[in-house]
Hints:
Blueprint: H1 3-17, H2 19-22, E1 32-33, H3 34-43, H4 50-59, E2 65-67, E3 73-76, E4 97-101, H5 103-112, E5 114-115, E6 122-124, H6 128-136, E7 142-146, H7 148-153, E8 158-160, E9 166-168, E10 170-171, E11 176-177, H8 188-204, E12 206-208, E13 214-216, H9 218-226, E14 229-232, E15 248-251, H10 255-271, E16 279-285, H11 302-308, H12 312-316, H13 320-329, E17 337-348, E18 354-366, H14 371-376, H15 382-402, E19 405-410, H16 422-433, E20 442-446, H17 451-461
Amino acid sequence: xxxxxxxxxxxxxxxxxxxxxxxxxxxxxxxxxxxxxxxxxxxxxxxxxxxxxxxxxxxxxxxxxxxxxxxxxxxxxxxxxxxxxxxxxxxxxxxxxxxxxxxxxxxxxxxxxxxxxxxxxxxxxxxxxxxxxxxxxxxxxxxxxxxxxxxxxxxxxxxxxxxxxxxxxxxxxxxxxxxxxxxxxxxxxxxxxxxxxxxxxxxxxxxxxxxxxxxxxxxxxxxxxxxxxxxxxxxxxxxxxxxxxxxxxxxxxxxxxxxxxxxxxxxxxxxxxxxxxxxxxxxxxxxxxxxxxxxxxxxxxxxxxxxxxxxxxxxxxxxxxxxxxxxxxxxxxxxxxxxxxxxxxxxxxxxxxxxxxxxxxxxxxxxxxxxxxxxxxxxxxxxxxxxxxxxxxxxxxxxxxxxxxxxxxxxxxxxxxxxxxxxxxxxxxxxxxxxxxxxxxxxxxxxxxxxxxxxxxxxxxx
Length: 462
């Protein structure tokens, strides 16, 4: 991290979120003495001169900070999570304003509108491109249109910050225009081609992104393969970690979209001074007998999508015992086994596009019971399936925590091709998370639109 980014992070933390921890005091309008701030910077090892501070304020891409006319005081222009009064006058907005977000947030927005959450206001942009850049910081951007003129005419109050951000208390769903639904993915032949070129990139140790830059993968792939391990979920050591449990959210999106969105959100948290340390990770809804499932044949399920977009397949090949034991077991109930792969590089999106830079995410690979196969062989036992789900769900969560995952993407595990009841899966996750919520900082259930989406949405809205 270069010095300028480090200073900007420190300023956001001091002037927006945690002034008392930094060692400064904000007045009722968010101002603090520059001298006091510079002293606090020096005490925290972020040394900066008045001249350097003035340059950062003047050249910040979003004009995040402001200096008083005499240069003696400084404050953040907006985005506070501490109580301040920016003394902004109500202002008539344009007819349309825009809000940049990601698919992760859309389900919640459709339910409650745009909420300010820990900030003082909802932030809106005057143009689509700015909103798209804001949403793009957290993943694939989605731009919502706010009928601000109608809101103002019906009594809602708007403000405009000194750096041009529009602010309001809340945007109800009735004033929002949503974009069209998420498009479908590539056809089977194209999925085969994507899988082949993904493996070629892994073998070559890198790829060329859309900007024409060569992105190296060799070091990350070698590390992920070396750190791929096999685990018996019934024999895991207790994880002593305790975190301040954050939100469990639900999103109508794919696992890869959720990983990208969370990676961007983590980066923004760090830029705002809210440091995150644990790994990003996800659950792979695995085939018990074929690494990567049918991704080389163009099959389309969650594991295949993960394998096409990352170096997961070479990692899974490091643990042939997992597949050998399942072949020998023969039952479609499968075994309480899992593979943990640490910091796998994900470098393609769901459509096969190359990412500008890889997203590193640890992967827990575990197979749910195959209800379809059990029914075909007249071996389905509802109580036995439920017990297997309960054991494996608890084990997956504990293994993820033991592997250092603090931001975890889950989903409708086993409720697709394996034919398990999505209500059972959702309920089992909810029950398993109740005593283990402290193990994770963020959990996102990524479930694309469809029947499973509706079932999980109902469970996690309750």
